[in-house]
């Protein structure tokens, strides 16, 4: 049975306190603390992910709709107490917290379960907008991308806002960090990947000319909104490619460009 919370200061819901301060509880260092999942649909995806569930907190009725393990701490509160705890008005009924897991082993991610199987990865450079990262992760899962590789400057894909925008799909997508950037791209080349750097530059090849059937392993490089990929990252990639667009439009937002590229190279 869920435990009813009436005191916003109750320590049992400390995982969920003051989330408006950022994408993690106030005072928690970057890249640490519990994973916070917002919304019943995302909580259901959390249950299918490898991240160990810690607690669930929400309004009566919505929490009971979830098929939760018997040993999970479950708390309910009215919408006013819930809002006071988390710091904003929740419209999605429930939140959950989960233990973090370390990033995937890079070599294992590059090898894949079946070395002969087609593999698609996305590589993000300097992408520090949590909502863009979440949107890219959602498109990645939908369009056949099997993992994310991040340069050392990328935002944490497990921040609450990234998880929310991804609708929880980021929790099912393995990710690893390429610490040596961009020289670390050679590790992908050694593993048989064609690296494709997206850029709106006129001298880049048309993305539709990159035939995914000719390359069993492909990795798409995406840069931050605005600056895009650095020249160093573009030079380190095997191919520089642009998305064909109508005259007068110079580029797409990174999340939209990612979805187009993932679909084109599927």
TrEMBL record:
Domain tRNA/rRNA methyltransferase SpoU type: 123-262
Residues spanning the signal sequence: none
InterPro entries tied to this protein: Alpha/beta_knot_MTases (IPR029028), Ribosomal_eL30-like_sf (IPR029064), rRNA_Methyltransferase (IPR051259), SpoU_MeTrfase (IPR001537), tRNA_m1G_MTases_N (IPR029026)
One GO term of the biological process aspect: methylation
Chain segments carrying region Disordered: 1-33
Entry superkingdom: Bacteria
One MF term in the entry's GO annotations: methyltransferase activity
Keyword tags: Methyltransferase, Transferase
Compositional bias ranges of the Basic and acidic residues kind: 9-23
Transmembrane portions of the chain: none
Tagged with keyword Methyltransferase: yes
Name assigned to this protein: RNA methyltransferase
Organism: Blastococcus goldschmidtiae
